[in-house]
Amino acid sequence: LMVYSPQGLLRNDSIPEVGEDAAATVGMAEMLSEEEQDELRKELAKVEEEIQTLSQVLAAKEKHLAEIKRKLGVNSLQELRQNITKSWQDVTSTTAYKKTSETLSQAGQKASAAFSSVGSVITKKFEDVR
């Protein structure tokens, strides 16, 4: 968990997961001075307030976005089609897809040639039998 410190630096603090020993957390809080605890409580309140503000801003932006889409006549089905098309274009433009596609194409050509050869051999055998 990244925590913004009053000094303006980021540091990693581990927060116990659910089920971890709660006594360790209590022990950590006891190691802090009253002043440090007060500072952290203020920081906690500030961060919670910022999160709430950001959530409200995000909700307002999403509402505005929906209104713009409604005015443009863009519906969910059209968006889904556009997203699928864009995703497919993104996939097909990747190097891995191109290499895989080329490999499969070459394998298909080799398989076709092999089946053709086998077919020729079988036809020749039938002709020889006659």
Give a verbal description of the structure.
With 130 residues, this protein is mainly alpha-helical. It folds into two domains: 35-93; 95-129. 78% of the residues lie in helices and 5% in strands. It is built from four helices and two strands; from the N terminus they run E-E-H-H-H-H. A two-stranded antiparallel sheet has the order 1-2. The N and C termini lie far apart (81 Å). InterPro entries: TPD52. This is TPD52 protein. Pfam families: TPD52. Keywords: Coiled coil. One of its GO terms (biological process) is B cell differentiation.
Q: Would you spell out the secondary-structure blueprint of this structure?
A:
Blueprint: E1 2-4, E2 10-12, H1 22-31, H2 34-72, H3 76-92, H4 95-129
